[in-house]
Amino acid sequence: MTKAVFMGLGYIGLPTAAIVASKGIETVGVDINPNVVDTINQGKIHIVEPDLDKLVKEVVDKGMLRAATAPVPADVFFIVVPTPFKGNHEPDITYVEAATRLILPLLREGNLFIIESTCPIGTTEKIEHLIYNEQPELKGKIYIAYCPERVLPGNVLYELEHNDRIIGGVNKDSAEKAVAFYSKFVMGTLHKTNARTAEMCKLTENSSRDVQIAFANELSLICAKAEINVWELIELANKHPRVNILQPGCGVGGHCIAVDPYFLTAAFPVESQLIAKSREINNYKPLWCAEKIKNAMLEYELKHAKKPVVALLGLAFKPNIDDLRESPAKQIVQNVMQSEPENLLVVEPNISTHPIFKLTDYNKAYKQANIAAFLVAHNEFKTLQWDDDKIILDFCGIFKR
Ligand code: SAJ
C-alpha cells in the first residue's frame, strides 16, 4: 500500500493529508508542535475550516491518518511548511530546508518528493541540490516536483479535489510521477510544467489578484473625492464585455495575497513596479478608512457637542469567515481605538469572544451607533436597513450607496 508523509499540518497540510488518507493511502502528518499532533491523533483539529473536523475524525478513526513529531519512511513526501519573511519582506525558506533535512535519511529509490509551500523562484532546484549533495547515490533515482496549492480558505475541501493543479517537475519523469499521485485525489486537470514555472505560477496568481484589488481600491479613493458611487461605477464598467473589476474594501488581508507578491518584489525589485505599487495601495487602504472614521467622529463631536457612539462592524480578513489573520478590519479597529478608546462597539458575528475586543451583537451595535463603519461585507450586515439618522461609512459595499 502507498504511504504518504506530510511535513506540516497547517491550513493546507492537514486538509490535504486528510483527503489523501480518505483515498486509502496510509498517511502520516508531521508537525513540530506536539499539541497539534495530540489534537489530531484524538480525531480533532486545531484550525477553522468547514467540514474538516468530520473528515479528520473519520480518517483518524479508520487508522488511515496519524500525526507524529517525526517523519517515517514512505513512498511520497510532501513539504507543506510555512515560508515566512525575514527582515524587510525577504522570504525565508529555512522551514522548507529543515523539513527536507528531516526526510533526507529516509529517502530511498523511487520516492516522490513534493514541495507545496509557497516559495521563491528557484527553491525546488535549491532543494534538489541539497538532497543530492547529502545523498549523491539518489541522483536520478527519486522524483522531485513543485505543486502549489490554490485553495480558498473556507472552501478548502471542495477546492482541493476540484481545482486544476500545476505540477512542476525538476524533469519530465518527476512531473509524470507527481501527476500520477495527484490524480489519486484531484478531479481537476493536472497541468505539467517545470518547477520554476510552477513556483512563478503560484506567485503570479496571488499577485494578479492583489493588483486587481488595488485597482478597485484606487478607484474607491478617486470616487470618494469625485463624489461618485464606486459600487455603481464598477457595476456599470463591468457591463463592458472585456472589463471585470473586483470590489474595493478595507484593504487586503489573509496569509496569501497580502504576502506572496513580496516574493516577487524581493527578488525582482526593478522589474516588479506595478506589483510593488499595488501592495502599497492595498496597505494604505486601512489607514485611509481609519482616518475617515476618525474625521467623522471629530465632525460629529464638533456639531453635537458630544462624542458619538461608533459601531465598527467586522474584524475578519474577508466576508463570512472567523479568520482574523492579517485583517485590515482589525487594523482599522486598533487604529481607531488608539485615538479614541471610548464609545466604540466592536462587532464580529463570526466569533463569540475575543481576548482584546469586547464584542457587541451587530443589531444592537447598529441600533445604538451614531456612526456605523462597515469594515467587512458579512452576510449578517446585509440584513440591516439604511438609516438616514446615522453617519454610515460603507467601506465594503453593504448598501452600495
Ligand atoms: N478582497 C477585496 N476585494 C475583492 C476580493 C478580495 O478587497 O474583490 C480582499 C478580501 O477581503 C481579503 C483579501 O482580498 O482581505 C484576500 O481574499 P481572497 O478571498 O481574494 O483570497 P484568500 O487570501 O482567501 O485566498 C487566496 C486565493 N487566491 C486567489 O484567488 C488568486 C486562493 O485561491 C489561494 O489558494 C490562497 O490565496 C493562497 O493560499 O495562496
Task: Give me some keywords for this one.
single chain; 401 residues; alpha/beta; 8-stranded mixed sheet; 4-stranded parallel sheet; 13 helices; 14 strands; 41% helix; elongated; binds ligand SAJ
Question: Helices and strands: which structural class?
Answer: alpha/beta
Structure ligands? ligand SAJ
Distance linking N and C termini? 59 Å
Provide mean pLDDT, rounded: 97
**Sheet with the most strands: spatial strand order:** 3-2-1-4-7-8-9-10
Low-confidence stretches: none
Any chance you could write out the topology, listing elements then pairs?
Blueprint: E1 3-7, H1 13-22, E2 26-30, H2 34-41, H3 52-61, E3 65-68, E4 76-79, E5 85-86, E6 90-91, H4 94-103, E7 112-115, H5 123-134, E8 143-146, H6 156-162, E9 165-169, H7 172-182, E10 190-194, H8 195-226, H9 230-237, H10 261-267, H11 273-304, E11 310-313, H12 328-339, E12 344-347, H13 362-368, E13 371-374, E14 391-394
Parallel strand pairs: 1-2, 1-4, 2-3, 4-7, 7-8, 9-10, 11-12, 11-13, 13-14
Antiparallel strand pairs: 5-6, 8-9
Helix pairs in contact: 1-3, 8-11, 10-11, 11-12
The chain binds ligand SAJ.
Commentary on this structure:
With 401 residues, this protein is an alpha/beta fold. Helices cover 41% and strands 14% of the residues. An 8-stranded mixed sheet has the order 3-2-1-4-7-8-9-10, with helices on both faces. The chain has a 4-stranded parallel sheet with strand order 12-11-13-14, sandwiched between helices. It binds ligand SAJ. Ligand SAJ is lined by residues 149-153, 205-206, 209, 213, 246-247, 249, 252-254, 256-257, 317-318.
